[in-house]
Amino acid sequence: MNAADSQTLSCPKCGQLVDVSDLAVGSEIECPACAHHFPVTRQFNHYQLERTLGEGGMGVVYLAQDLNLGRVVAVKVLKRELSEDAKFITNFLKEVEITASLTHPNIVQVFAFGEHEGHYYLVMEYIGERTFDDDILESKKLEEARVIDIGIGVANGLNFALQRGSLIHRDIKPGNILIGANGVPKVVDFGLAMTPETAEAAAGGEIWGTPYYVSPERLEGKVEDFRSDMYSLGVSLYHALAGRPPFDASTAELVAAKHLSETPLPLKTYAPTITDQTTYAISRAMARQPESRFANYNELIEQLEDAKRRLVTNTGSIPLGSVSVVESDVENTKIMWIAGLAAGVIMLVIGALLILQYSKSV
């Protein structure tokens, strides 16, 4: 909403009307009549916006009271320029309608959506403000078991959205994974979500999202499917275990370039105690080529659950040969070339030793 929107509040102490048009929701104001300090709120439709929870490229999320139902909710209000973009709004309303029909323990529920005073908005359940990103910032490196649980939960939520609504999220990152009661992860903000049809139409267009977690195919303007979300989830889990994202640079453009051209350092470089099963699951999820990732979410979930079982029983390695499917064709070629070279060197050494031994015997 624009700061210029006319708004007055009544001082809760003396009743004096105070102009708060230029003040942000949640800021504090002093009553000019009685000097009482009180927070700035704003009524938006039948929601009382109390303070800002977050702000992104698409709009602002507010903590609010639903005045009709008497419950606390989160209200996301789109920026006016997006609200005035007819094509964007057509797709937005279509995808949000599908999202509102999804009820799953790992997805933040959408209660309602609509338009008010020139702004489109959606209303979501409020489960708190802690995110996976907060956990990473606080702990730097998270425990393996915890990261596995979050990975399983998020993958389950994304799989449900895909199966029930044919939705791909398109902005999976630690900041869009809320941590609810009992540590349950919930995917939030399907604002960039698309069906396969709209994703195909959007290919090559403007790139929204956070460069640290965006898939290579999206950066290249190619058509996305669920494997793009899987890549972003893999990068998020890598970040949580390594204490840093797999690719970092001074600008968003350089980060994007690394996603397209570089291979991340093995996870064990930063977290040497991580089990092979977890390393494999994350490495394959974030393989550069989509076809090298898991074929579906069930495979990823199964691998993470296996990693959790192995972690509990403290056993070591995954079956020999499994990791090879993670590598891209180029990386496989490198490995085969190096292996062939090493074998050749070994054969030369063995040959030299045999000749030497034969010379001595004669």
Overview of this protein structure:
The chain is an alpha+beta fold. It folds into two domains: 41-125, Phosphorylase Kinase, domain 1 (2-Layer Sandwich), CATH 3.30.200.20; 132-326, Transferase(Phosphotransferase) domain 1 (Transferase(Phosphotransferase), domain 1, Orthogonal Bundle). Helices cover 41% and strands 17% of the residues. It has eleven helices and twelve strands. It has helices at residues 80-83, 86-100, 132-139, 144-165, 196-202, 216-219, 226-242, 252-261, 276-285, 297-313, 329-361; strands at residues 8-10, 17-19, 28-30, 37-39, 42-44, 47-55, 59-66, 71-78, 110-116, 119-125, 177-179, 185-187. A six-stranded antiparallel sheet has the order 5-6-7-8-10-9. A two-stranded antiparallel ribbon has the order 1-2. A hairpin with a 4-residue loop joins strand 7 (59-66) and strand 8 (71-78). Helix 4 (144-165) packs antiparallel against helix 10, helix 7 (226-242) packs across helix 9 (276-285) and helix 9 (276-285) runs antiparallel to helix 10. The longest helix is centred in the last third of the chain and has 33 residues, at 329-361. The protein is elongated and about 65 Å long. Mean pLDDT is 84; it is low at 201-207 and 315-362.
